[in-house]
Protein: glutaryl-CoA dehydrogenase (ETF)
Organism: Halosimplex aquaticum
Amino acid sequence: MLDYVDLEADLSEEERLIRDTAREFVDEEVRPDIGDHFEAGTFPEGLITEMGELGFYAPNLDHESTANVGERAYGLLMQELEAGDSGVRSMASVQGALVMYPIHAFGSEAQRERWLPDLADGSAVGCFGLTEPDHGSNPSAMETRAERADDGGGYVLNGSKTWITNAPIADVALVWAKDRSAEGSPVRGFLVETDRDGIETNHIDGKLSMRASITGEISLADCYVPAENVLPDVSGMKGPLSCLTQARFGIAWGAVGAARDCFEAAREYATDREQFGGPIARFQLQQEKLADMATDITTAQSLAYRLADLKERGDLRPQQVSMAKRNNVRTCREVARTAREMLGGNGITTDYSPMRHLANVETVYTYEGTDDIHTLILGEDLTGIAAFE
Ligand code: TGC
Ligand code: FAD
C-alpha cells in the first residue's frame, strides 16, 4: 500500500488499530459488492449499524457514547472508508460531522442525551439540511423560515431543502432556517424528527455520481417543532459553517483514500497487463503516470496529516481546511482519471474501482463547497478582499 514517506512510522498504536479496523471492514464488507450497489443506485444499508457498532460515527467527539480518539485517527478512518467508496465515507461524514458534531457542540443536554447514543451506534440516522433549490453555494440567502407557533412555545417551519444525503432514510433532520421571530432573522438549527406532520423527504433519482449513496429533498409545510428542538447555543451562519469545517476536514482525508485506491488498481493492472510482449508497466509513459500519481497522493496525504496536528492543538483555521479540501479533491480527480486511462477498456467497468471513484469525485468536487468557492475563500484569505459580494 502506497506510503512513500513512511507516515506509518509516526502512528500511535490506537491510530494503527483504527486504520486497520477500517481497512479490514472495507475489504470484507464494502469491496465485495460496492460495484453492484453503484450500478443499482443503492446504499448497502446493512452497513449503517455495523459502522455504528465499530464506532465509526464521530469517534473524535468527547462524549460517553463515542470513542474520543484523536483527529489523526479520525482522518485515517475517513481515508480508509473512502478508499472503499465515497458513499460510505459520506454516510460517516454526515452522521458524525454534520449531525452529531452540532448536537454535541451547540445542543442542550437533553438533545445530546436523546440523540447522540442512537446516532453513535447507528440505530438512528441523521441528515443535514442546508442547501436549497435556489441557494447552494450561498446558503446565507436561504428561504426556509421558522416562525413562532400560535402557542408561543414552538416554531412552524416552511421551505425546502435539496441534495440532502440520507434524507429519505433519516430519523432526524437538522434543518437550518431563518428565525423570523428574532431581530435580523438569524439562521438557527432545528432538529426535526422525520415522523412529524408537515415534513416529507423524497428520493432524488438519476444520479450518475455517488450512486451508492442515498440523496433526497426535504419539504417543510407548516411543520411544527417544539422550542426544545432548537439548538440553543448557536445563532447565525457560524452554526452550519462550523459543521462544514468538520466535514471538509474528513473529506480532505477521504480524497486521499480514494486516490490511493485508484493508484493501487493502476499499479497492479500495469504490472499484470501485457502488450507488445511484456507488462505495460515497463513503458516509460506508464511509469511517468505512476510517478506523478504517487507524488501527488503523497503531497495530499502530508497536507492531511498536518491539518490533523493543527486541529488537535486547536489551531486549525477554516481557510486551511479549504486549501486541503480543494487540493486533495483535485488530486483525487486527476489520479482517478489517469488510473482509469491506464486500465484501458476494462477501466470503464465496475469490475475495477477507478471509474466508480472518478464518477464519485465529481460530487465531492461540488459538495461541501465547490472547488470555485474554496478558491475564493483562499483568495479572500490571501488578499483580504472578498469576491463574494
Ligand atoms: P461569512 O460572512 O464569511 O461568515 C459568517 C460567520 O461564519 C464564520 N465562518 C465559519 N466558521 C466556521 N467554519 C467556516 N468554514 C466558516 N466560514 C465562515 C465567520 O467567521 C462568521 O462568524 P461571525 O461570528 O463573524 O458571525 O459567511 P457567508 O455566509 O458570507 O459564507 C461565505 C461562503 C460562500 C464561504 C459560505 O457560504 C460557503 O462555504 N458556501 C459553500 C456552501 C457549502 O459548502 N454547502 C455545503 C452544504 S452541506 C454538504 O454539501 C454536505 S455533503 C456531505 C456528504 O454527503 O458527505
Ligand atoms: P451552485 O451554487 O448553483 O453553483 C453552480 C456553479 O456556479 C458551480 O460551478 C459553482 O462553483 C459556481 N459558482 C457559484 N457561485 C460562484 C461564485 N461566487 N464565483 C464563481 N463561481 C461560482 N447539501 C446539504 O445541505 N446537505 C447534504 O447532505 C448534501 N449532500 C449532497 C450530496 C450530493 C450527491 C450532492 C451532489 C450535493 C449535496 N449537497 C448537500 C449540496 C451541495 O453542497 C451543493 O450542491 C453545493 O454546495 C453547490 O451548490 P449548487 O449545486 O446549488 O451549485
In short: The longest strand covers residues 154-165. The domain at 238-383 is CATH 1.20.140.10 (Butyryl-CoA Dehydrogenase, subunit A; domain 3).
